[in-house]
Amino acid sequence: MKTLAVNTSRPYEIKIGRGSLDQAGVLCRQAIPNARKLTIVTDSRVLPLYLARTADSLEQMGFQIQCLTVPAGEASKSAEQLVILWEKMMAFGMTRTDAVVALGGGVVGDLAGFAAATLLRGVDYVQIPTTLLSQVDSSVGGKVAIDLRAGKNLAGAFWQPSLVIIDPGCLDTLPDRTFSDGMAEVIKYGCILDRKLFELLNRCGSRVRVMERIVDVVYTCCDLKRRVVVEDERDTGLRQLLNFGHTVGHAFELAGHYETWTHGQGVAAGMNWAAQLGVELGVTPPETVECIQELLKKFDLPLDIPCPWETMTEAVGLDKKNAGDHISLIVLEKLGQAVHRKMARDELLGLLKCMYGR
Ligand code: NAD
Ligand code: ZN
User: Which cellular component, as a GO term, is one annotated location (predicted)?
Assistant: First the structure.
């Protein structure tokens, strides 16, 4: 099993290895030695696949378990579900030394993590991410949140986990679409921070081949995110590089009301747009755009998504007069190297208009 140490304000370890799910008990005993009761939060799809193995392993180490299941899907990242979790955790008799275990994708991780951050003013939690996106992105970094009617992730906290257990074997059961969504974030790391990773993905070129190297791929992504997060735990600078493709990507997600297009699809098309904006700005070499497009296509990710002009300007923050004269964008200097660029609003508006053929 591979280990990464994350030295944030509350240090913790990421354990990565096939079969690590069956080690959950031993690993939790080491990381949270004083916990007695554990509430496992999972969703309706993950439950039949991975709950029994996880719970068995935890019970064998003497933990007392309660399992709470939410319906699979983004709609569960809600205030309503949060209240249900809080109440059931207290009814189970949890105390400040007990802990929450998030077993599932980013939805479960964000929801259970926020429940842990707020219950009794904060109890420990363990992330056991089961989607590619959650293994390479959301389980590391300590951002936890729920959605509000006004938008996604609007109520949340920074709350670092006590342990992250990643079993890439769980990815075998992912639908192709969900696997591709995670690949968008993996490709993002290659674009912004690691050319070698980008080239490895290019050589693999398919899900099957990536799965042959999956432990290395997940380890590399977690290592990259760890470095960024340790430098900028509260998201005030460096961490914003991780938003590459996300500004325009957000417009695409919004255009489909978060239903027609997944986050990964939005980010993929957003990266293609951000790469082209970089070329227009004279920062990104033109051949970089083609490289990114080729790689996205290999993993069945879109290069573009229909999006009304008004939705685009709203998502990019160009509709608000009070947003200031400048807009911050992440662009590529080359593959594997991203930079922050402040752009005058009018300049960005002009470029977008050109790209829209207006
Ligand atoms: P998800 O949690 O909804 O999982 C996607 C689907 O896959 C669900 O239906 C789930 O039941 C199913 N699933 C999970 N594991 C499976 C497995 N091993 N086999 C088969 N099916 C499985 O979505 P996601 O893409 O993992 O995460 C998206 C969420 O993550 C969003 O809410 C997003 O806001 C959040 N997010 C958070 C951060 C962060 O830093 N906290 C970063 C990125 C994204
Ligand atoms: Zn993302």
Answer: cytoplasm
